[in-house]
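In practice, a research group might receive sequence data for several interacting partners and want a quick structural hypothesis before committing to experiments. The following worked case mirrors that situation: the sequences arrive first, and a predicted assembly follows.
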Amino acid sequence: MVSPEGNEQARAATEEVARRSYGKLVAFLAAHTRDVAAAEDALSEAFASALTDWPRNGCPRNPEAWLLTVARRKTIDMFRAAQRHQSSSEELELIEATLAAPAEGEIPDERLAMMFACAHPSIDAATRAPLILQAVLGLDAKRIASAFLASPAAMGKRLVRAKEKIRQAGIPIRVPGNEELPARLDTVLNAIYAAFSEGWTDPAGADAARRGLTVEALFLARLVVTLLPEEPEAPGLLALMLHTEARRRARRSAEGEFVPLAEQDQRLWDHAQIAEAESLLHRAGSLGHIGRFQLEAAVQSAHVDRCRTGAANWPHVAELYSALFALTGSPVVLINRALAIAEVDGAAAGLDAMPDQTADARLTEYQPYWAARCELLARTGAFAEARRANEIAIGLERDSAVRRFLERRRAALPE
Amino acid sequence: MQYLLLLHAEEAGFMRMTPEQQKQGMAAYMAYTEALNKAGAIKGSNRLQPVSTATTVRVVDGKTQVLDGPYADSKEQLGGYYLIDVPDLDAALSWAARCPGASHGIIEVRPIWTMGEPAPAGA
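A structural hypothesis for the assembly, expressed as tokens:
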């Protein structure tokens, strides 16, 4: 007879193991079969078995090993039933042998290898972040879909296809060798940052699915920092995300209005996160080569420093943006650089430094471009032009709090 | 796993080369093939006659249609292939990058469908 308390305990225990080890178990199972979907299926069956078995027989001493044993059996059954491989008996023996080995001790952590497979250049770029969130963290397609503003059906299909590609194209679940590592790590970090940015587009935190993504992205970045301690861009990314996350609560007023950086209440900043970001950035700087994420984190660090000390550091900020532009060629960087130049040499110089929207059509649909133009034009006294730029910016913004901020800016413009 | 490396390049490019350049080009392919051989990775390879020799065939409503010319009419043409056997996609991609064809054209890397394998679920 299963008592309700035993049931509840077993559920709590499996949930705890699921949170802690889901990605580790999927990665370990898939690393040997290259079949992510099969690993997920086997593991979800193992969790289902745990829910019936643990209340009856008590929670096992090593729940992770218990789940792996069951999942391994399911995997082998599935492979046998599907006869997916021609040389099935030999391959099955190999799979049995490799999956059996570590059940005694610690399960090797293949999550980093899994991230490299999910962010492989042969996987569709827009699917890399969703795939990592699913395969490494176990987020379901519905939640990922809502965070990435896609329909659950479409997202589900994309994820299935990507997993099929890993298996059929033979994408290795492995950390690449030294020669390829920097370029490949870049795609992994970009995918993590994409997940973080999706979460960040809803800073009010009204949408739990999106808010949670920033936490998940921080977890993934920490994992990469831990597992690849010699790569400076990983702590660079983590520092950038921590700096951004640290100011989350200050970005909106109690009334839900957008608060620009210079006007934020610094008591609402998470100073522990800022301190961690600074120490990560320092550590990244000691590892030898500079990169995009370190530079972006350095910009954030300079902004925070200016706000805290009141000492203007705009020439330094403009320099950082110049270095960043040299590295990325991004017109978005030019906009920010122009704003920094305006602080150093005046609004007219800032306007001159703005990227030409006719040179890059994407800028015409980019809200910050028009908001920046509005600011600089207003400072040169070209109020009519500033008003026009402001109107376009309002028309392009999807966040209502930012829209209201821009509307207040317009109201403040002299006729 | 087996992969087919499909070599696409602008055919006219080869014709425009001087005999000396053509000889150098051929030597590069021979060296590449030899390297694949040494690694025990090659399963087969061929160079194709120019697309001017191509004929396409299809059967529509039971009638055979034969047309002059290649199937895909693009700037680059399929000019040859290597069938290789390597552990995974990364190994196949690094062989593709070493192929002389990657420097003057495009190489498509396609895994071979193993018999008995089910169709992809998402396709």
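Before designing any experiment, note the following. The domain at 2-111 of chain B is CATH 3.30.70.1060 (Alpha-Beta Plaits). The interface with chain A takes residues 1, 3, 87-90, 92-93, 111, 114-118, 120-123 of chain B (CB under 8 Å).
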